[in-house]
Amino acid sequence: MPEQLHARVEACYQQAETFFKRGFERPRISFKLRGQKAGVAHLTENLLRFNPQLYKENHDHFLKQTVAHEVAHLIAHQMFGGAIRPHGEEWQLIMRGVYELTPDRCHTYAITRTRRSRFVYRCACPERDFPFSAQRHALVRKGRRYFCRSCRVTLVFSGEQRLE
């Protein structure tokens, strides 16, 4: 499976090199991306990260559009520097001119949401609770305090957990 993606990245680089008549440094590629993002280009690290689940579920479109989208970010950075906007005219030029693709900012892949455990916090307001993520709950356990904006009382863990 990753072989096709690596081949597509290489093909995108070769297209850009032919178009711009110059070489580009190849990036490292990682398949350690989860959640809603299909891909991420880390410009200063010359690194591409891809979501293996979305790749598997949307294989053909992912190879064509998402890979080119992320490679275009790295090409734009190497060509024009770090002061450009992420989906600005330079990136759009590469998407349209080099890859002949629509410069879509976001994918439309179906995302399967996983249920997450929430820690229920309460204040002095009647029938009001605040579901905290595990990360925020851990911060509270380390001493961070959060306040209700209505009653201004410190939020306190109720002892309850629920799945959302």
Automatic annotation (TrEMBL):
Keyword annotations of the record: Hydrolase, Metalloprotease, Protease
Domain SprT-like: 7-158
Gene Ontology BP, a term: proteolysis
Domain of life: Bacteria
InterPro entries cross-referenced by the UniProt entry: SprT-like_domain (IPR006640)
Presence of the UniProt keyword ATP-binding in the record: no
Record-level Gene Ontology MF annotations: metallopeptidase activity
PANTHER family linked to this entry: PROTEIN SPRT (PTHR38773)
Protein name (Swiss-Prot/TrEMBL): SprT family zinc-dependent metalloprotease
Provenance organism: Stutzerimonas zhaodongensis
